[in-house]
Amino acid sequence: MDLFTYVLHGDTVANEELCHALFTQLLNSVCLLHNQCRLAHLDLKLENVVLDSHYNLKLIDFAFAEVKDHSLCVAKGTERYQAPEVARMFYQKQSWQDQGVPLTFVPE
Predict the structure, then answer these.
(1) Which entry of 43, 52, 61, 98 is annotated as an active-site residue?
(2) Model confidence over 11-44: pLDDT tens digits?
């Protein structure tokens, strides 16, 4: 199951210990990618994080990944997940970017 679906179902709301464990796993995964593999994922979002039956986190969808041995100068990834300052550099539209990214997810 991807982390988006898991969060959407509300399974993380009352489980602070599980949230802490998942966040720690995510940070460790990104550190491993950056420091040992020398890769930048460039499309991290809840849909690209999956959990197994033991709550082990795995990153998926490396289509936009880049080797970190050069300067990244292209915008990649899902546009609505990009930081506003990154998106402004590559897109002239400044509608959603100026609003920032909400901290909470509210299903439509």
Answers:
(1) 43
(2) 777 888 988 999 999 999 999 999 999 998 888 8
Pairing mode, strands 49-51 and 57-59: antiparallel
User: pTM here?
Assistant: 0.70
- Token pair 């969060």 is found at 7
Q: Which CATH class is domain 1-69?
A: mainly alpha
43 has catalytic annotation: yes
- E runs forming strands in the chain: 39-40, 49-51, 57-59, 66-67
CA 89 → CA 39, 46, 86, 100, distances in Å? 22, 24, 5, 15
What proportions of the chain, in percent to the nearest 5, are helix, strand and coil?
40, 10, 50
Write down the domain spans for the chain.
1-69, 71-101
Retrieve residue 13's tokens: 């709301």
- Chain segment 42-81, per-residue pLDDT in tens: 888 999 999 999 999 999 999 988 888 766 666 677 777 7
